[in-house]
Write a structure and sequence with these properties.
By secondary structure, this protein is of the alpha/beta class. The protein is 36% helix and 27% strand. α1 packs parallel to α3.
Length: 205
Protein backbone atom coordinates (compact mmCIF):
# COMPACT_ATOMS: atom_id res chain seq x y z
CA UNK A 1 0.00 0.00 0.00
CA UNK A 2 1.11 3.55 -0.75
CA UNK A 3 2.97 4.97 2.26
CA UNK A 4 0.97 8.22 2.36
CA UNK A 5 -2.32 6.34 2.13
CA UNK A 6 -1.25 4.18 5.06
CA UNK A 7 -0.47 7.24 7.17
CA UNK A 8 -3.91 8.67 6.36
CA UNK A 9 -5.57 5.42 7.48
CA UNK A 10 -3.84 5.53 10.87
CA UNK A 11 -4.54 9.24 11.25
CA UNK A 12 -8.24 8.44 10.95
CA UNK A 13 -7.96 5.80 13.68
CA UNK A 14 -6.21 8.06 16.21
CA UNK A 15 -9.36 9.08 18.11
CA UNK A 16 -10.39 5.44 18.51
CA UNK A 17 -6.97 4.40 19.79
CA UNK A 18 -7.02 7.32 22.23
CA UNK A 19 -10.42 6.35 23.69
CA UNK A 20 -9.53 2.69 24.30
CA UNK A 21 -6.15 3.25 25.95
CA UNK A 22 -7.24 1.83 29.31
CA UNK A 23 -10.21 -0.21 28.10
CA UNK A 24 -8.54 -2.56 25.63
CA UNK A 25 -9.12 -6.28 25.79
CA UNK A 26 -5.37 -6.97 25.56
CA UNK A 27 -4.66 -4.97 28.71
CA UNK A 28 -3.65 -8.00 30.79
CA UNK A 29 -1.32 -9.15 28.00
CA UNK A 30 0.32 -5.74 27.72
CA UNK A 31 0.77 -5.57 31.48
CA UNK A 32 2.40 -9.01 31.63
CA UNK A 33 4.70 -8.15 28.73
CA UNK A 34 5.75 -4.67 29.80
CA UNK A 35 6.62 -5.65 33.35
CA UNK A 36 10.00 -6.57 31.87
CA UNK A 37 10.53 -3.23 30.12
CA UNK A 38 13.37 -1.28 31.70
CA UNK A 39 16.07 1.30 31.14
CA UNK A 40 16.28 2.99 27.74
CA UNK A 41 13.23 1.83 25.76
CA UNK A 42 12.44 2.06 22.06
CA UNK A 43 8.75 1.61 21.29
CA UNK A 44 7.92 1.03 17.63
CA UNK A 45 4.57 2.31 16.37
CA UNK A 46 3.74 3.89 19.71
CA UNK A 47 0.40 5.08 18.35
CA UNK A 48 -1.73 7.00 20.83
CA UNK A 49 0.26 5.69 23.80
CA UNK A 50 -1.70 2.49 24.29
CA UNK A 51 1.09 1.01 26.41
CA UNK A 52 1.48 3.98 28.75
CA UNK A 53 -0.69 2.52 31.56
CA UNK A 54 1.37 -0.68 31.67
CA UNK A 55 4.94 0.58 31.98
CA UNK A 56 6.54 0.45 35.44
CA UNK A 57 7.59 4.07 35.89
CA UNK A 58 10.35 3.24 38.36
CA UNK A 59 12.01 0.88 35.86
CA UNK A 60 12.04 3.27 32.90
CA UNK A 61 14.89 5.68 32.21
CA UNK A 62 13.58 6.98 28.88
CA UNK A 63 11.15 5.92 26.13
CA UNK A 64 11.76 6.86 22.53
CA UNK A 65 8.40 6.40 20.83
CA UNK A 66 8.27 6.24 17.03
CA UNK A 67 5.21 6.51 14.80
CA UNK A 68 4.61 7.78 11.26
CA UNK A 69 1.11 9.08 12.07
CA UNK A 70 1.14 12.70 13.29
CA UNK A 71 -2.41 12.35 14.61
CA UNK A 72 -1.43 9.32 16.70
CA UNK A 73 1.53 11.22 18.10
CA UNK A 74 -0.71 14.15 19.05
CA UNK A 75 -2.78 11.75 21.18
CA UNK A 76 0.36 10.21 22.67
CA UNK A 77 1.71 13.65 23.55
CA UNK A 78 -1.55 14.59 25.27
CA UNK A 79 -1.33 11.37 27.32
CA UNK A 80 2.27 12.08 28.42
CA UNK A 81 1.07 14.48 31.11
CA UNK A 82 -1.34 11.92 32.58
CA UNK A 83 1.18 9.11 32.93
CA UNK A 84 4.34 11.14 33.67
CA UNK A 85 6.62 8.94 31.59
CA UNK A 86 9.95 10.21 30.19
CA UNK A 87 8.89 9.98 26.54
CA UNK A 88 10.51 11.46 23.44
CA UNK A 89 8.29 11.15 20.37
CA UNK A 90 9.65 10.87 16.82
CA UNK A 91 7.46 11.17 13.74
CA UNK A 92 8.92 8.68 11.29
CA UNK A 93 8.62 5.24 9.77
CA UNK A 94 10.86 3.23 12.08
CA UNK A 95 12.38 1.46 9.08
CA UNK A 96 13.81 4.79 7.94
CA UNK A 97 15.64 5.47 11.22
CA UNK A 98 19.21 4.60 12.12
CA UNK A 99 20.07 3.99 15.76
CA UNK A 100 23.38 2.88 17.19
CA UNK A 101 24.03 -0.78 17.88
CA UNK A 102 23.36 -1.84 21.47
CA UNK A 103 21.58 1.45 22.19
CA UNK A 104 18.45 0.18 23.96
CA UNK A 105 17.80 -1.98 27.01
CA UNK A 106 14.30 -2.79 25.76
CA UNK A 107 12.51 -2.68 22.42
CA UNK A 108 8.73 -2.89 22.44
CA UNK A 109 6.27 -3.61 19.64
CA UNK A 110 2.58 -4.23 20.21
CA UNK A 111 0.50 -5.02 17.13
CA UNK A 112 2.79 -3.26 14.68
CA UNK A 113 4.55 -5.99 12.69
CA UNK A 114 1.32 -6.74 10.83
CA UNK A 115 1.78 -3.48 8.92
CA UNK A 116 5.46 -3.50 7.97
CA UNK A 117 6.31 -4.45 4.37
CA UNK A 118 9.21 -6.67 5.47
CA UNK A 119 8.90 -7.64 9.16
CA UNK A 120 12.00 -9.86 9.05
CA UNK A 121 14.19 -6.90 8.10
CA UNK A 122 12.55 -4.83 10.81
CA UNK A 123 13.38 -7.48 13.43
CA UNK A 124 16.96 -7.59 12.18
CA UNK A 125 17.31 -3.87 12.90
CA UNK A 126 15.78 -4.26 16.35
CA UNK A 127 18.21 -7.07 17.18
CA UNK A 128 21.11 -4.74 16.34
CA UNK A 129 19.75 -1.81 18.31
CA UNK A 130 19.03 -3.88 21.42
CA UNK A 131 21.78 -4.56 23.94
CA UNK A 132 22.96 -8.20 24.02
CA UNK A 133 21.44 -8.69 27.49
CA UNK A 134 18.39 -6.56 26.70
CA UNK A 135 14.79 -7.52 25.93
CA UNK A 136 12.66 -7.41 22.80
CA UNK A 137 9.02 -7.56 23.87
CA UNK A 138 6.38 -8.33 21.28
CA UNK A 139 2.59 -8.59 21.26
CA UNK A 140 1.65 -9.45 17.69
CA UNK A 141 -1.06 -11.21 15.73
CA UNK A 142 -1.09 -13.47 12.69
CA UNK A 143 -2.57 -16.52 11.06
CA UNK A 144 -4.54 -18.78 13.40
CA UNK A 145 -3.61 -22.37 14.21
CA UNK A 146 -7.30 -23.19 13.74
CA UNK A 147 -7.82 -24.33 10.10
CA UNK A 148 -11.32 -22.87 9.75
CA UNK A 149 -10.38 -19.51 11.24
CA UNK A 150 -7.18 -19.32 9.18
CA UNK A 151 -9.20 -19.71 5.97
CA UNK A 152 -11.36 -16.79 7.07
CA UNK A 153 -8.27 -14.69 7.80
CA UNK A 154 -6.76 -15.39 4.39
CA UNK A 155 -10.03 -14.49 2.73
CA UNK A 156 -10.39 -11.24 4.63
CA UNK A 157 -6.73 -10.18 4.43
CA UNK A 158 -7.03 -7.97 1.31
CA UNK A 159 -10.01 -6.17 2.84
CA UNK A 160 -8.22 -5.64 6.17
CA UNK A 161 -5.16 -4.21 4.43
CA UNK A 162 -7.30 -1.76 2.46
CA UNK A 163 -9.42 -0.82 5.48
CA UNK A 164 -6.85 -0.47 8.28
CA UNK A 165 -3.45 -1.27 6.74
CA UNK A 166 -3.10 -4.50 8.72
CA UNK A 167 -2.27 -7.99 7.42
CA UNK A 168 -4.19 -10.89 8.95
CA UNK A 169 -2.41 -13.82 7.30
CA UNK A 170 1.22 -13.56 8.41
CA UNK A 171 2.82 -16.57 10.07
CA UNK A 172 4.32 -14.77 13.01
CA UNK A 173 6.17 -17.75 14.47
CA UNK A 174 7.79 -18.47 11.11
CA UNK A 175 8.89 -14.85 10.81
CA UNK A 176 10.46 -14.97 14.27
CA UNK A 177 12.24 -18.24 13.46
CA UNK A 178 14.00 -16.58 10.51
CA UNK A 179 15.00 -13.51 12.52
CA UNK A 180 18.03 -12.95 14.77
CA UNK A 181 15.89 -13.19 17.90
CA UNK A 182 16.15 -15.78 20.64
CA UNK A 183 12.82 -16.47 22.32
CA UNK A 184 12.98 -16.65 26.12
CA UNK A 185 9.25 -17.17 26.66
CA UNK A 186 6.15 -17.23 24.49
CA UNK A 187 2.39 -17.44 24.89
CA UNK A 188 -0.32 -18.02 22.26
CA UNK A 189 -3.90 -16.84 22.65
CA UNK A 190 -7.20 -16.97 20.76
CA UNK A 191 -6.51 -20.08 18.65
CA UNK A 192 -2.96 -18.99 18.02
CA UNK A 193 -3.91 -15.60 16.60
CA UNK A 194 -2.18 -13.49 19.25
CA UNK A 195 1.39 -14.05 20.41
CA UNK A 196 3.26 -12.69 23.41
CA UNK A 197 7.01 -12.98 22.90
CA UNK A 198 9.74 -12.25 25.42
CA UNK A 199 12.95 -12.35 23.38
CA UNK A 200 16.52 -11.12 23.18
CA UNK A 201 19.03 -10.70 20.35
CA UNK A 202 20.88 -13.84 19.31
CA UNK A 203 24.59 -13.84 20.00
CA UNK A 204 26.45 -12.12 17.20
CA UNK A 205 29.31 -13.87 15.50
Amino acid sequence: MNHHKLIKKFNKQADTYDRIREKQYQGKWRKALLEEAHGAVLEAAIGAGGNYPYYRQEAIKKIIGVDFSPKMLEKAKDADEQYSLPVELIESDINQLKFEEDQFDTIVSTLSLCGYPNPKETLESWAKWCKPNGSILLLEHGISSNPFFSILQRTLDPFAVRAVGCHQNRNFKEIISRSPLEIKKAEDHWFGVFHLIWAKPQKRR
